[in-house]
Amino acid sequence: QVQLQQSGPGLVKPSQTLSLTCAISGDSVSTNSAAWNWIRQSPSRGLEWMGRTYYRSKWYNDYAVSVKSRISINPDTSKNQFSLQLNSVTPEDTAVYYCARERGGVDYWGQGTLVTVSS
Amino acid sequence: QSVLTQPPSASGTPGQRVTISCSGSSSSIGSNTVDWYQQLPGTAPKLLIYSNNQRPSGVPDRFSGSKSGTSASLAISGLQSEDEADYYCAAWDDSLNGRVFGGGTKLTVL
């Protein structure tokens, strides 16, 4: 059974960097048959896909146009996890953030982390 | 405003059949497969349908999906009270090079 365990701060100050980590059990971040996503949800923006990382003989990333200039998603093969960094946050980045596995559909989700951007 | 368009609400009585629509474009639904998710309050979304009409293991066959052109539909037959939830469609969009979601449909079981 795949499990995704998220960790990271729930409060970030404006202009700073939001950092979250997703630890994977029951699968490998280096698998050739899945992609590892970050998705957020807020009342104003609904469900918003942010980006993904995946391995197909080499590492690839795809990022949403809305955050492309501020986002980085990186795998950590030594710890079997992947991370999200979102720079220069504003209150509009306040949301519940989910990590998730994509294999066919998005079939496994982390527990969600409410991140509030506030001074 | 979401890239995929869903009705904000739907309703039905127990035992009834309900459908939820999802409208996209040639670069999203018209070129890629559609997924459907169910979200209960306070929980992460759950995959209901993938690749237009495939059910993951454990999803009841009361849930079915279909796609035609740039639109897709989720059908729920034999409606039950526990089906009351928010439902989202999703697809890859080739123009945006990203996954896009619908705005969600809140299903009420009367």
Work out the helix count of chain A: 0
What is the terminal-to-terminal distance of chain B? 28 Å
The coarse silhouette of chain B is globular
C-alpha Rg of chain B, in Å? 13 Å
% residues in beta strands of chain A:
over 45%
Structural class of chain A: mainly beta
For the secondary structure, the number of strands of chain B is 9
- Runs of chain B with pLDDT <50, length 5+? none
Strand pairing plus helix content of chain B: what structural class?
A: mainly beta
Q: Give the oligomer, counting copies of the same chain as homo and different chains as hetero.
A: heterodimer
| Largest protein-protein interface | A-B, 22 and 22 residues
Secondary-structure element order of chain B, N to C? EEEEEEEEE
Q: What does the main sheet of chain B amount to?
A: 6 strands, mixed
- Report strand % of chain B: over 45%
Helix content of chain A: under 10%
Number of strands of chain A: 11
Plain-language structure description:
The complex is a heterodimer of chains A (119) and B (110). Chain A is mainly beta and 119 residues long. Chain A has strands at residues 3-7, 11-12, 18-25, 35-42, 46-55, 59-63, 71-76, 81-86, 95-103, 105-109, 113-117. The mean pLDDT of chain A is 97. Chain B has no helices and 9 strands. Helices cover 0% and strands 45% of the residues of chain B. Chain B is mostly beta strands and 110 residues long. The radius of gyration of chain B is 13 Å and the shape is globular. The interface between A and B is medium-sized, with 22 and 22 residues.
